[in-house]
Amino acid sequence: MQITARQEIIVWLTTCRSSKKLRRLGTVVYVSFKMNYAIMYLTAQHSQTLMAKINDLPFVKRVELSPRQTLKTDYSTADATEIKLKRNEELCE
Hints:
single chain, 93 residues, alpha+beta, four-stranded antiparallel β-sheet, 2 helices
């Protein structure tokens, strides 16, 4: 089994009723009917062309890349224990 690289995007919609049409262009993970946006995954190779196609759809306001790839996700336990030790030292002083 080969794992393909994917790109997460946020699609802002005018109405969420037409969000099912996004399924043919990528994997829709979440749709917020209150805030009118959808989160979906695209293949990384074709992400720019698919983003342009999605942006041209009449029910789409704008398309943006998700900031999730740039966020720090490595939370080692050593960092947490160091922070706790520093807090305890400050409280003892």
